[in-house]
Structure formats: C-alpha cells, structure tokens
Amino acid sequence: MAHRAAAAARRRLEAPGVAVGVTEELIGAQVHAFYGRVRDDPMLGPIFEAKIDDWDAHLAKLCDFWSSVLLMTGRFKGAPMPAHARLVGVGGPHFAHWLEIWRATARETCPPLAADMFIARAEMIARSLQMGMAMARGELPPLRSAPSPQTDQDGGG
Ligand code: HEM
C-alpha cells in the first residue's frame, strides 16, 4: 500500500503539467473562466445549457478531468467519448470555436508555458473526440472494401 502511494506520488511529480507550473488552482481558474465564456457564447452556450443542469458538478468534473490529464492525479472517472457522441449536430465548426475560446482563455489566465500545454492537450483531445464522434456516426470511410457479391460467387482466390 505504501509502495503504491509512493509510486502514485512519483507519477504525479513526473506529470506533464508540473514542469510548466500547472497547479490545481490554475486548472480551476482556466476551467471556470472558460466555461463562463462558453455559457455566454451564442454558438456553444445553448448546447451546454440543454445538457447541463448542475453547473457546479460539471465544473468540478472538468477540473478533475484536467487534473488527471496534466497532473496525473487519476481523479476523473467519466467517459468523454459517449458524452460527446450523443451531441447531435455538433461537428468541426463547433470544435474550432471551442478551441478558439479555450486558447484565448489560456493566454489570459495562465503563464505562457502552462498556456501552451493547456492548448496542446485540448487540441489533441478535440481531434480524438471528433474522430470518435465521426466513427460513432458511421462517417469514416471503411479501412477495407467489403467483398463484392461478384467476387464471392467466383469462388476464386
Ligand atoms: C464543440 C465542442 C464541445 C462541446 C459542444 C462539448 C459539450 C459537452 C457537453 C454538453 C457535455 C455534457 C454531456 C453530458 O453530460 O451528457 C460535455 C462533457 C464533457 N466534455 Fe465536452 N464539449 C466539447 C468539447 C470538449 C473538449 C475539446 C474537451 C476536452 C479537451 C471536452 C471535455 C469534456 C469532458 C471531460 C466532459 C465530461 C464527460 C463525462 O461526463 O464523463 N469537451 N461536453
């Protein structure tokens, strides 16, 4: 048990955010400032208001998420992919705009290196969420062509 706690503490010291000065306080500041803007945004605000009843709980969850990503605390227990795959009509332009607001907020809220890291991670995650959403919606091209009935009947190899 002590061994496991020591390993977790070591992992946290090696977490990507530590070297650039990310702290729980900074995560709280970034997340709260960002969602404050998003709620007022004409394009994104209504999407969140339709889904989120308890903003305090949502913000706490997002702080846990970023704490897990940048400080490797393992606090986040959610499942972002299905949560986003359920969002009908949300696509590339929404993600681009989400990232614009995220970048502007990070530049204003965080020291430069920490902002760079918040931005780089959000861009990677946004990309993988969009890929996952496209996959869930059947929008990605298949990796192999289905065998045509013609080929099957030929029986050849
Ligand atoms: C167009 C862009 C985005 C929109 C409109 C959006 C919207 C939402 C909404 C409405 C929820 C709540 C879903 C629910 O409770 O049913 C949610 C959850 C969440 N979002 Fe996003 N999101 C976007 C992009 C992102 C990005 C880029 C990230 C991360 C970098 C992110 C991280 C999360 C996380 C961690 C949750 C919590 C998932 C869970 O409950 O397990 N989102 N988002």
Task: Explain how this protein is built.
It is a single chain. With 157 residues, the chain is mostly helical. 69% of the residues lie in helices and 0% in strands. The chain is built from 8 helices and no strands. The radius of gyration is 20 Å and the shape is globular. The termini are far apart. The structure holds protoporphyrin IX containing FE.
Which helices and strands, and how do they pair?
Layout: H1 2-13, H2 24-40, H3 45-51, H4 55-71, H5 80-85, H6 92-109, H7 112-136, H8 149-154
Helix pairs in contact: 2-3, 2-4, 2-6, 6-7
The structure holds protoporphyrin IX containing FE.
Rg, please? 20 Å
What about the largest sheet?
none
In DSSP terms, counting alpha (H) and pi (I) runs of 4 or more, how many helices? 8
- Ligands: protoporphyrin IX containing FE
Beta percentage is: under 5%
DSSP strand tally: 0
Through-space gap between termini: 58 Å
Summary tags:
binds protoporphyrin IX containing FE, 157 residues, Globin-like
Task: Write a concise synopsis of the structure shown.
It is built from eight helices and no strands. The protein has helices spanning 2-13, 24-40, 45-51, 55-71, 80-85, 92-109, 112-136, 149-154.
